[in-house]
Amino acid sequence: MQVGPNTSLTGSLQLKTVDIVLEIDLLSIAQHNNGSASVILINSNYMHSVFNNSHFRPENAKPTYMGAKVVLVILTQVMVKRLSKPINLTFQHFNVSDPADEPACVYWSEGAWVTNGCSASESNSTHTVCSCSHLSTFALIMQTNPNTESDPVVEALSAFFVLVGLVFLTLAVLTFALCRRNSRVSNMARLNLSVCLLLAHALFLFTQTALRLIQPHRVLCKLLAGVLHFLFLCCFVWMSTEAVLLFLSVRKLRQIKAKDRTGPHWRYKLLIGYGIPLVIVSVSAMAMPDGHGSEKCWLVTEKGFNWSFLGPVCLILTGNIVLFIIIFLTIHITLRAAHSEASKVKTTRLLLIKIMAQCVILGCPWIFLMASEKSRVLELLFVFLTSQQGTAIFLIHCLLNNEVRKQYATWWKKYGLSSKPPGTSDSVTLTTIQHCSNSQMGHTSLDTAQMTEAKPDKGD
């Protein structure tokens, strides 16, 4: 379209194609350009598939899709740099859109779609009018609004299950902390695993309960997602550390005397248990700054960022499976060779079964996370199984442990319903220490057979 000095046209002019209508005040532009001006409108049937919605990063991190064709508006032989009146572009949608979808009028700038200077003035299910204060290459991107309404009964049940898991996790942490073995044997891996699970589940419950209040604050949402990412990775690293310590202990079963302690010093364990997750989360955040902070304040799935968590988890689970096979074969060979005490080998085998069960309970529920966004049932199953991880740890390592049950009975007699005559407190305390020292729950090292021979290590 072109106008000259002697044109009789008045008002804003319209330039139409099959899918696009451009409304522009070309006469006002011509007045500032020696009385003449011309505009070109170009739309393409294929540009939207190349310059698609993947180049658009909305602040609210909502899912998006291309709503209409990409269009290019050009003023030819015009020296005007700024428009005195915004242009209006009416886009016809590819398909009838959901009334809840939000249109985003964008233009191409430095390799990405941005919204500066453009806004949607009108919109319905078939058309959207975009008003822009400059000329460029324009597009219409629709932001979907997933159904965030949930069943209050389901939410209440989810919160209840998480609370139950937190109660049992707290009991497990107290058991591992108060009923620790002597200084020669470490219970660190399982204690730190339980602490990380407790913090992660408590933060998860807080985040999901206050999600509507947290979502508007993008920085807070990203921070919470990063902390959850770190804590859950810590759980898997500590679980793997426990399996490695068991493997190192099993290697000594065939030795007649093994006075040296098993595994690295506790400082190195802490460095491994918390350092590796911190490195993974930091590198992931630097590689993709917008990766943390989805609609549920978790990891976004764009460009496979969720694999910054699922990848290490799969690697750890695969490594644990290999270790369990090696440990099982070592125990079998040791029993046949009879190079170690039968009771010691049986204790190791029982601990292997417990740690394998713990690995399955902690690892398998995350399989449902991959498909939970597409299925409400899988999402609820994932929440239920993960919330009961603490319950499972308490059952496996506390209630199913005979010595720990005896210790609970001792505490119950001391602080519960039973009354003790004066002068028996020292006896009860001595019994408590003996029960804790003989407990099987902390077998990250298998030096029980040499308790009278080994020297205490004050470092652990």
Describe the structure.
The chain has 2 domains: 2-143, Chondroitinase Ac, Chain A, domain 3 (Sandwich); 152-417 and 426-447, Rhodopsin 7-helix transmembrane proteins (Rhopdopsin 7-helix transmembrane proteins, Up-down Bundle), CATH 1.20.1070.10. Helix content is 48%, strand content 14%. It has helices at residues 26-31, 47-50, 152-178, 188-209, 211-214, 218-250, 266-287, 307-337, 342-363, 376-387, 389-399, 402-415, 425-437; strands at residues 2-3, 13-16, 20-24, 37-43, 64-66, 71-76, 87-92, 102-109, 112-114, 118-123, 127-132, 137-143. Strands 1, 4, 5, 6, 8, 9 and 12 form a 7-stranded antiparallel β-sheet that branches. A 5-stranded antiparallel β-sheet has the order 2-3-7-11-10, with no helix packed on it. 32% of the residues are buried.
